[in-house]
Design brief:
Helix content: 10-25%
Structural class: alpha+beta
Strand content: 35-45%
Largest sheet: 4 strands, antiparallel
Number of helices: 1
Length: 165
C-alpha cells in the first residue's frame, strides 16, 4: 500500500473515532441533563439526593418526575393531594397519605405508585387494613417509608403495617 494512502486511512480512522466518541458523550450528556419539566416547582414536597427526581403538588393533585433507568423525564399526575399529606419517595416509587374526615373523625388514606411507569399500586388503603380476625380500621399515619417495591408505615395508634407491590 502506498504510504500516502496509509496516512489518509489512518487520519480517517482517527477522525471517525473522535467523531464517535464526541457523539457518544453528547448522547450521554443529553440523557442525564434534566428536562425542564423536572426542575424545581412551587409546592415541592420531595426531591432525591441527586436532585433530578421530584414530587410536588398543584391544586389538589400530586405530581412526580423521575429520571430512573435513564428514561427521559416527564411530569406525571400521581393522584390526589390535600394539606397535611405525608410523602416518601425513593426516586422511582412514591407513597403518600391523603388526610380526610370520615364520620367526624380525622383519618388518612395511603396511596403508592411507580413514578417511572406512572402506575398506582395502592389506592386509598385504610391505615390499618385489619386481618383475618380484625376489620380494617380508620386512623392517622404517623410516618411512612417506601423503598423499591416495599412500603411500611406506622399509625398514630402504634400499628406497624407493611405492603409489597
Amino acid at each position: 500500500m502506498n504510504p500516502h494512502r496509509a496516512a489518509v486511512l489512518l487520519a480517517m480512522t482517527v477522525s471517525l473515532a473522535a467523531t464517535a466518541a464526541a457523539t457518544a458523550a453528547a448522547t450521554t450528556a443529553s440523557a442525564v441533563r434534566p428536562d425542564p419539566k423536572c426542575l424545581v416547582r412551587p409546592g415541592q414536597l420531595a426531591v432525591t439526593r441527586g436532585g433530578d427526581d421530584r414530587v410536588w403538588h398543584r391544586g389538589d393533585s400530586l405530581y412526580a418526575c423521575t429520571t430512573a433507568y435513564a428514561h427521559a423525564p416527564k411530569a406525571k399526575r400521581m393522584g390526589p393531594w390535600a394539606p397535611g399529606t405525608k410523602v416518601s419517595f425513593d426516586g422511582s416509587n412514591l407513597a403518600w397519605t391523603v388526610p380526610m374526615v370520615i364520620a367526624g373523625r380525622r383519618t388518612d388514606r395511603v396511596w403508592a405508585a411507580n413514578v417511572d411507569a406512572g402506575r398506582r399500586w395502592m389506592l386509598a388503603q385504610k391505615p390499618n387494613p385489619g386481618g383475618a380476625d380484625k376489620p380494617a380500621r380508620e386512623g392517622r399515619v404517623q410516618r411512612l417509608q417506601v423503598r423499591d417495591r416495599a412500603l411500611a408505615w406506622v399509625t398514630a395508634g402504634g400499628d406497624v403495617v407493611g405492603a409489597l407491590v
